[in-house]
Write a structure and sequence with these properties.
Elements: H1 2-23, H2 25-60, E1 77-83, H3 90-98, E2 103-104, E3 107-108, E4 110-117, H4 123-129, E5 136-141, H5 150-157, E6 165-168, H6 179-188, E7 195-202, H7 209-230, E8 242-245, H8 246-251, H9 262-272, E9 277-287, H10 293-320, H11 325-336, H12 340-353, H13 364-387, H14 392-406, H15 409-422
Parallel strand pairs: 1-4, 1-6, 4-5, 7-9
Antiparallel strand pairs: 2-3, 6-8, 7-8
């Protein structure tokens, strides 16, 4: 009930601010000044993030970053692969996990558990057939055994695993044999972190404009995350390719079985306890990007609602706790990203309402919000792309495509807020469809 009230208050405040800013010049200029400050902050993050990303990728190409196949003193890792009706893709994923080179004393220093989450398409059988003697097991979670969420699957799997570090990869994921070693070596750079997120890359990026834009989005997000980490902010987990220390997970209360976005929800709980997430840009999971607009809308609406719910539920505890001011400020700045979309929509609506009135609205307000949002994303995309070696017109073009693509959040976030405030029940977990395409060259 409190979450519903907070969402409604958020929408009401957006409406009030929108009405004031389109009608009062001083209020409009104050809002535009705030937009300018936020762009400067994003540019600062992009600069720091690009440096961290470039350095990590360069180090991975030589010297200590070259994988050896030996775990050495690195931790034993337990991987969880949730799979519900994933027969089309789970076989290749299991084979990729089976080929991981992460050994100690001639024995694998990892294990993996594929959770057949009530599938009716033979997912479990396909997974078992692909194991080939690797340290991978398959367990079935019966239908209606609990909430139909990824967090519930992870909670089901955890008691069967022995690793001090738990990792999660999705059923459509491909990883290189050096994946685990690269990830754990990256963690050693920041051994005080309780969780780690690797890079995510679309393996079907060449299919369409939509999938290529998601490749830019992933680089933009990694640049932003690296910037937040470098400035002692609150970097976050991203679901696929996330790792967490078991002791930290237990101290934070375990996996949430009701969260729509278990990764973001856990990130906020960890941050509220004083833990932080580190990053491994040089280790990557390759996943399927969404290929249709309808599937994209459903995926992003779930992401937005899940992210907003965890901000409303856990944000106050984080802000009132004993965290350093840098992390609180970063969290507030991140939360501010969710202010722009409802405010943008509210200023458009309010401006349209004033058309028949004697005093027209100040249309520079919604224009400033749109341009400011797009410019911030563009700068982050520039940071991520330039760190990977992109230059010249391709750099500008790809960054522009990423910025245009990310503008969909201007509509998704307000719809998610309306759902939280007025829908009878939270959105259900909706699985993203798989195309089962082979790896692109």
């Amino acid at each position: 009930m409190a979450t519903r009230a907070f969402a409604a208050a958020f929408l009401l405040a957006s409406g009030i601010v929108a009405w004031l800013t389109i009608g009062i010049p001083l209020a409009a200029r104050a809002l535009q000044l705030g937009i300018g400050v936020s762009i400067a902050y994003v540019a600062w993050l992009a600069w720091h993030g690009s440096r961290v990303l470039r350095r990590a990728l360069a180090d991975a190409e030589g010297g200590a970053g070259v994988p050896t196949g030996h775990a050495g003193d690195l931790p034993f890792v337990s991987l969880i692969v949730p799979a519900r009706n994933e027969a089309k893709v789970i076989g290749d994923t299991v084979r990729a996990v089976a080929e991981l080179r992460y050994h100690r004393g001639g024995r694998p220093a990892y294990e993996a558990l594929v959770v057949d989450d009530g599938s009716d398409d033979g997912t479990g059988d396909v997974a078992r057939a692909a194991v080939f003697g690797a340290p991978i097991s398959v367990r079935r979670r019966e239908p209606r055994a609990g909430p139909a969420t990824k967090g519930a699957v992870l909670a089901f799997a955890t008691p069967f695993l022995s690793g001090d570090v738990l990792g999660v990869i999705d059923a459509d994921t491909r990883v290189d044999p050096s994946f685990l070693e690269r990830a754990m070596l990256a963690w050693a750079r920041d051994s005080g972190a309780d969780a780690l997120q690797v890079a995510r890359r679309p393996r079907n990026a060449g299919v369409s404009w939509l999938t290529r834009a998601q490749a830019e989005e992933q680089l933009m997000d990694m640049a932003s995350q690296c910037g937040r980490w470098a400035t002692d902010g609150t970097a976050e987990l991203r679901g696929n390719g996330m790792f967490v220390r078991r002791v930290a997970l237990e101290a934070a209360g375990g996996w949430s079985e009701r969260a729509l976005t278990e990764d973001l929800e856990l990130s906020t709980r960890l941050s509220a306890r004083g833990s932080h997430v580190t990053l491994a840009p040089e280790a990557a999971v390759r996943e399927e990007a969404v290929e249709t607009l309808g599937d994209l809308w459903r995926q992003r609406l779930r992401w937005a609602e899940g992210s907003l719910r965890r901000l409303l539920e856990h944000g106050p505890r984080l802000l009132t706790g004993s965290l350093p001011m840098s992390r609180k400020a970063d969290f507030l700045a991140f939360t501010g990203e969710f202010l722009v979309p409802p405010l943008f929509v509210a200023t458009i609506i309010a401006s349209l309402v004033t058309i028949p009135l004697p005093r027209p609205a100040d249309w520079t307000v919604p224009f400033s919000l749109f341009v400011g949002y797009g410019l911030g994303v563009f700068l982050l995309a520039l940071g991520g792309l330039s760190a990977t070696g992109e230059r010249g017109l391709p750099l500008i073009g790809r960054a522009a495509r990423g910025a245009l693509f990310l503008s969909h959040w201007l509509l998704v976030v307000p719809v998610a807020l309306v759902r939280i405030a007025f829908a009878a029940d939270p959105a259900a977990f909706v699985q993203t469809p798989r195309s089962a395409r082979r790896e692109e060259a």
